[in-house]
Design brief:
Layout: H1 2-13, E1 18-25, E2 39-45, E3 52-59, E4 62-70, H2 71-80, H3 85-92, E5 94-98, H4 102-112, H5 115-141, H6 145-166, H7 175-182, H8 184-195, H9 200-216, H10 219-222, H11 224-230, E6 237-238, H12 239-243, H13 255-264, E7 269-274, E8 281-286
Parallel strand pairs: 2-4
Antiparallel strand pairs: 1-2, 1-5, 3-4, 6-8, 7-8
Helix pairs in contact: 5-6, 5-9, 5-13, 6-7, 6-8, 6-9, 7-8
């Protein structure tokens, strides 16, 4: 297979802005990791005209996909889990071209997942978890039990991804296989919830209680990314200021739910500032 595709990737390797090339081969008859292509050629470049370029090929009754990605976009994907397959491609893929050991260093960095890089990822997954959990509670309280059930499954998925990150690993697509090995308590929660024969409303009710403990016990650690940024200035922050902060904007869509949770937990204080309108205040936040 590599011999057939060699002319394609060698041409790309000759470009000075190409940093590295990986090959990922399909291992199962149905392969979400490769989008069911037989092989993925993943090419990382610097200063690309197009941040993400994709081309499909067919050969010997097989399919191949070539992804050319600018390293700036790749780093964003790694930081935010913007394209989850990429982590698995980088981790499991075979290096077939490496300029100045760029790919080897990147693989090593992903393997180690240093603590200073985990803060943002924990904040992103925790914010998603809070949003999903809050929506689940709202569905449950309004009697929408099937919607509550669906949202609880999503909450448990975010909790699983968060637990993997806390253990120092990047969450893979098959996250429950990881969780079963490294966080069996959370895997057991998921198993009990999905396999229980209790009525749907009862299952959701019990899992809301169990999830609340799991969430609250992680709050201080997982909110540190946001709290640390809020502590960089003495005056309170408006929501708009927080939302556009270069680091926080990566989880801006879930920021409102996260802030309200932290206010309830008394980890963030609400500061009301007067406006021109009588009895109307600007709502600002201080860690």
């Amino acid at each position: 297979m590599e011999n057939v595709l060699r002319p394609i990737y060698q041409e790309r390797a000759s470009h000075q802005n190409t940093l590295g090339i990986l090959m990922v081969e399909k291992e199962q008859p149905v392969s979400p990791v490769t989008d069911n292509f037989d092989v993925i050629l993943f090419i990382i470049v610097r200063n690309a005209d197009e941040p993400w370029y994709v081309k499909h090929y067919e050969y010997e009754n097989k399919k191949a996909a070539m992804h050319i990605v600018d390293e700036t976009l790749l780093n964003t994907w790694i930081e935010t889990s913007g394209y989850r397959k990429v982590i698995q491609w980088l981790t499991d893929g075979k290096i077939i071209f490496d300029r100045n050991e760029y790919m080897a260093d990147l693989k090593e960095k992903l393997h180690n997942f240093p603590e200073e890089n985990r803060g943002l990822r924990k904040a992103i997954e925790f914010a998603k978890l809070i949003r999903a959990y809050t929506e689940c509670k709202n569905f449950y309280s309004s009697g929408q039990y099937l919607d509550a059930y669906s949202m609880m499954v999503r909450s448990l998925h975010y909790l699983a991804r968060l637990s993997v990150i806390e253990k120092g690993f990047y969450p893979e697509i098959t996250v429950w296989n990881q969780v079963k090995k490294i966080e069996p308590e959370i895997y057991k929660l998921y198993e009990e919830f999905t396999q229980s024969t209790e009525p749907t409303d009862k299952k959701v009710q019990l899992m809301l209680l169990a999830s609340e403990y799991a969430i609250n016990s992680r709050a201080e650690r997982c909110a540190q990314h946001l709290i640390h940024i809020m502590q960089t200035k003495d005056t309170p922050w408006s929501f708009g200021e927080l939302k556009i902060h270069p680091e926080i904007e990566k989880y801006a869509l879930d920021l409102s739910a996260l802030l309200e949770y932290l206010v309830e937990r008394k980890m963030v204080k609400v500061v009301n500032e007067e406006t021109k309108g009588k009895y109307i205040f600007h709502r600002k936040y201080k860690a």
